[in-house]
Please model this.
Amino acid sequence: MSIFAQAVQRQGYTVREAHLEWTIQSTARPVVVIGAGPAGLMTANLLQRADVPCVVLERGTREYIETRPRAGMLEDRSARMLERHGLADRLLTESDTHTACEFRIDGKAHELNYSELSDGRTHFVYPQQEVVTDLLGQYLAGGGDIRFEVSDVELHDHLDEIPSVSWTSSGGTREQLDCSFIAGCDGFHGVSRKSIPAGAVKEFTHQHGIGWLSILAEAPPSTEKVIYALHADGFAGHMLRSSTVSRFYLQVPVGENVDNWPDEKVWTELHKRLALRDSDWTLTEGKIIEKRVLDMRSHVVEPMRYGRLYLLGDAAHIITPMGGKGMNLALNDAEVFADAIASYYNHKSTAGLDDYSAVCLRRVWRAQEFSQWMVDLVHRNEQPFLSRLGHARLQHLIQSREAAASFAQMYVGAN
Ligand code: APR
Model:
């Protein structure tokens, strides 16, 4: 039993009281984690395992975070990381593993077996809300402290030895907590990144000039592998979520109004862009449960830190859904950060904290480059010359084992 747990037991405190007592008594103040998505909850679980006190603040309800459909693909590397920390039991038993994807061009299908080309590594199709549900369950089972439905979160004194965070609790009381570090895991629209003074960090943004109609339908998958289709009228994608729900994407103009896409038109366009010549393959339709337009943009904050505030996941970087890197980068940031905090708490070393941003950004920029490469690969470009380049690149990927192997390594997260 950890020192911390002994203190709790000896004092007969609840975890929350013990946090405060610990803070006062032992000057080891908690880490405050803002946001309970994959980045925040992975961080909280790893800190808990390292006996580092932490408090998670989440503006949504438990039900909201456990049911919000977002990403759905875990790299082999992320699944192994979750397994290493004892957080993958349900993932490894309930997820579907995938070894290949399919490119469709000129009405023909081309399978790319990325597992074969990456020493047997696979993808795990496991919806983000299931990852969040597992991480939250583990954290609470370990006595973790999380406050749901908080509002007006504010960060104070980032550059001080003792920063603090204040918020309004679900009960309406204004609370404030001195802490050792703040983990900003509250996404692109959260308060953490916005609390950094203008100019104190660099922000790199790229608008891809592409819109995506994102569709979630209660349709059983019409494929066993993810499909990327390059069509004269634009990209179409058939992603996998579960045996009863599928995610589809259609390339549309930037700023497109979702009202221009009644369900019938959506299915007509999907049938057309995913169609195969000389094949009896058909697309199974179903009730569309979510439809929204995404403007494809990418964003990176450098460094991913300001004083004692560390940015993780979408709070530090936004990446296009091409290649399914968003959730995987968030989990990677969490492991690098938690390792750094653990060595600070347990060995008084700041090396990991000092290197955190550089270590994460290496992976972030590699993923950004790969995601951009895939965007150019399968999207119709306003400039016919650039569209032809995408066509040529896809032909090369299909015909060259070396090109396919390089794709496979990046796609499955092998490097
Ligand atoms: N106060 C408290 N919580 C907040 C605040 C706030 N001001 N703002 C946002 N949050 C919470 C959100 O409700 C959400 O639960 O922060 C959490 C952020 O979670 P995500 O958006 O899932 O971000 P992250 O953990 O970085 O995961 C990134 O999520 O969206 C996908 O594609 C993305 O896969 C990537 C992954």
